[in-house]
Each structure stands twice: as structure tokens, then as C-alpha cells.
Amino acid sequence: MPDESIRRELARSALEAGKVPAGSAARGLGRPGRRQPCAICGVPIHPDEVEFELGFSREGIVPGLDVFHMHIRCFAAWEFERTKIPPAS
Q1: What is the CATH classification number for the domain harbouring 50?
Q2: Which 3 state secondary structure label does DSSP give 41?
Q3: Full-model pTM
């Protein structure tokens, strides 16, 4: 599992590449991992770890909910990095 500085760099890269949203989640859920890959580091989240499942509303031609899974520490890195991005005008 990467250390904090690497997690933050991975989160920053994922945000810049548009792989994860920079806005606030429409819903969030914390629970034991279900072996889903983390949206930040790519490592599966095992049942003995906490998984954050975040849902983001998608609008447009096919509205819905985009779901992302993150380790708790990857979520913290994402949260820190996304708050550094200025809001869109």
C-alpha cells in the first residue's frame, strides 16, 4: 500500500486525468471492502479494510450515478487534493 505522499500524487493524477470527479459526491457509504479496485491506487479493497463507495450524479443524454470505490486513506488523499482545485466558473 502506498505511503501518503504517493497516495496524494495518485489522487492528483486521477483528478487531472478525469478518472475521478473533483466535485462532492451525491452519496457516500463506508463498509467492509468487496474486492473492488480502488479508483485512486487500483489495488482491490479487501473485506478486512474499509471501503468508501462514492456516487456522483451524471446528467446529460444518459443520466445516472457513477460509482467509485476507494480505500479510506485514498479517499482522504482524494478529498485533500480535490479541495485544492478552484471551482469551475
Answers
A1: 3.30.1740
A2: coil
A3: 0.86
